[in-house]
Amino acid sequence: MLEHRMNATLLDLEEMTSGAQPGEFSLGWPVTSWLRAITALMPHINVEDVDKAEILKSAKAAKKHQAEARQHPADLIKLASR
């Protein structure tokens, strides 16, 4: 149930932030990236006997999205400083 809510929230947020024009920055982008990272791990929360390969795949996806989320505020600072 929680995983479904997270995915629904992620889809709504992606839809809201998709209208940003090139050169513009959407404040939703960092939030979307963090939510993607969390959502990548959601299938394994409160589940027993999860395959290690599945956890590894999810953890790598989460790490990628976290790195993206960390970069967005730096981009926002750069754009706001112009």
Describe the structure.
This protein is 72% helix and 0% strand. With 82 residues, the chain is mainly α. The longest helix has 29 residues. The protein is built from three helices and no strands. α1 runs antiparallel to α2 and α2 runs antiparallel to α3.
Primary descriptors:
elongated, 3 helices, 82 residues, mainly alpha, 72% helix
Helix-strand layout with pairing:
Elements: H1 2-17, H2 28-41, H3 52-80
Helix pairs in contact: 1-2, 2-3
Strand content: under 5%
Largest sheet: none
Alpha-carbon distance between the termini?
A: 43 Å
What Rg is obtained from the alpha carbons, in whole angstroms? Answer: 15 Å
Provide a count of the helices: 3
Q: SSE order, as H and E?
A: HHH
Helix content: over 70%
Shape, principal axes of CA atoms: elongated
- Arithmetic mean pLDDT: 85
The assigned structural class equals: mainly alpha
Point out poorly predicted stretches.
none
Tell me how many strands there are: 0
Short summary:
The protein is mainly α and 82 residues long. It is built from three helices and no strands.
